[in-house]
Amino acid sequence: SNLLQTIPQCSNSSKLEILRLSYNNIELCSNDCIYLKHIIELDLDHNQIQYIPNEFLHCIKLQSLNLSFNQFRKFPQIILQLRSLNKFILNNLYLEDLRSINLFEKYFYRTLNILDLSHNNFNRNLHELTVLKALTYLDLSHNQLSELDQDFKLMTCLKILKLNQNKF
C-alpha cells in the first residue's frame, strides 16, 4: 500500500509486462496511459479512478485488467475496445446496469475468458453478456439479480458461473 497518485514513469520500460498498483490514490489521467503500451497485466484496484481516458486504448497488449474498488459512476465503456483483453475484473463498484453496452459483441466476444462483475447492483437479466461466447468464468455473485436471460444456456464454453447472494 502506497500513496501514489499517478502511474510511475518507470512503467514505461518495454520489458515491463505486469504492473500492480493496488491500494493507492491513483486517479488515472491521460498522461499516465502513455507508460502502459507494453503492459500485459494491470491491477489498479482500490484506487480513486472515476473514468478511463481515451489514451488508455494505447494499451494494445493488455490481457488482464483489474479495476475493482474504484469510483466509477457507470461502466467504463472504453475498456470494451481493448481487443486483447481476456480477463476483466470489475467488482465492488455498485454498478447498476449494462444496458447501453452493445460493444461486448463488437469487440471481444471471442477473446474475453474471465469476467468478474460481483458485488455490484445489477438487477436485470444481463442479456448483454450472452454474446461472450469464449467466456469460461463469470462471477455475478452479490448482485440484485432475480433472473438470468435464457440465452445464458447458449454460453457453451462457460465452466464456472457464480450466482450466489442474489435474489433467485
TrEMBL record:
Q: Which UniProt keywords apply?
A: Leucine-rich repeat, Repeat
What is the name of the protein in this document? Answer: Uncharacterized protein
Q: Which organism is it from?
A: Adineta steineri
